Structure formats: structure tokens, C-alpha cells
Amino acid sequence: GENVEQHPSTLSVQEGDSAVIKCTYSDSASNYFPWYKQELGKGPQLIIDIRSNVGEKKDQRIAVTLNKTAKHFSLHITETQPEDSAVYFCAAYYNQGGKLIFGQGTELSVKP
Amino acid sequence: NAGVMQNPRHLVRRRGQEARLRCSPMKGHSHVYWYRQLPEEGLKFMVYLQKENIIDESGMPKERFSAEFPKEGPSILRIQQVVRGDSAAYFCASSLLDWDTGELFFGEGSRLTVL
What we know:
By secondary structure, chain A is mostly beta strands. Chain A has strands at 4-7, 10-14, 19-25, 32-38, 45-51, 56-59, 62-67, 72-77, 86-94, 99-102, 106-111. Chain A has no helices and eleven strands. In chain A, the strands form two sheets. In chain A, strands 2, 4, 5, 9, 10 and 11 form a six-stranded mixed sheet that branches. Chain A has a five-stranded antiparallel sheet with strand order 1-3-8-7-6, with no helix packed on it. Chain B is globular, with a radius of gyration of 13 Å. The chains are: A mainly beta, B mainly beta.
């Protein structure tokens, strides 16, 4: 079935600490895994993505890792800042039907 | 290049009325997706459309909900005889013709409140 599980649902860190959000997916055929950031009252914005032929990708303070064997992928944010506070969604692209299935979201709070 | 445009941003309807939500994809994008977000919940897939075709509507309720993406004009998500449980944010996203990239660009959403 089409399912993406995301943990934790809420995460509170001190400014400067790291934050890690984890997701698992069910379809071994999935090959594209984006992460979206949603600020209050706004639409989701793509922040980083990874494809199945890559194990890790980094963009400044944000990195994503992918373990295809275990069907896990994770978002890592280092040196967190208050403006990183938002809801983060992982997603997996299901070729059958051609659509993104989203995780439940993680509300990240970075305390100054 | 304008992003995905949705309107109205906020819509209030009484039970039994109809709601129409519109979405204009990014320029050059011919794939449109509608997602629903209930308060403090994730994004639930509803329907995937290409011009004049519904590709996947597996996430859309069988009754009262319909979607279209005509050859000309925006995509429309229509909810007939709304009920309180339809209150949610409805997000539209679009992607390029070469959707193997998988990248979806989202609009700001339409927030429906049913009284």
C-alpha cells in the first residue's frame, strides 16, 4: 500500500542544536523523496530532495540520508535557528499513479 | 514566473452549499494535484489531473467531490452539499510535463470553513 510514516510528531530543540526527523515508506519501487517545510498559514515549500541512486545529499545546514534496503530516509538540520521553526513533511513518490504521498508532519520548535 | 495560484484563499460556506476552489498551475506545468489538510494533520492526496484527464482520483471521496482540469483555464475542485467535516485547507500543486522529476510546487492553499 501507499504509506509514509514520520516521527516524531513534535520536536523541540535549543538554538544551535541539531534536529533529526525520520520517515519510512512502504513501496520499494519509490525512487524520489522530497522534504517540505510549511510555515503557518502557507503552502509547503520544497527544501531538499533525494533520489534512490544517492545515499546522502547536503545543502548547507540541511542534509538528507536514504537507506533503500530498510526503506528509511531522514532529514538532518544542524545549527538550528529560530526561523527553522515550522512543520516539516517527508514524502515518497509512488510511480504507480505518479503522486507524492506525505508523512504526517513534524512540528519543529527551535527555542532561542 | 508566477507560482501556483489558488483562489479564493478563504471561503466560508453554510452546510449544503457548494464550494468551488480554483488553481492555476505554474507556467508550463500540465500536471495538477489536489491535497487536503485537516487541522494539525498531514497532507492527504485527493486527485491527480492532466489537461482534460483525471489520472488518479483514489484519494477523493466518491460522493460530492469532483475535479477537473480543462484545456483552457484553471483546475477546479468542486465540493457539493458541503458538511462541517469538509472544513480544511485544500492545496493545489503542479509539476512539469516531464514529471519524472517528481518535484511538486504548491500554492498557498484555500481554507474552507463550513458553518
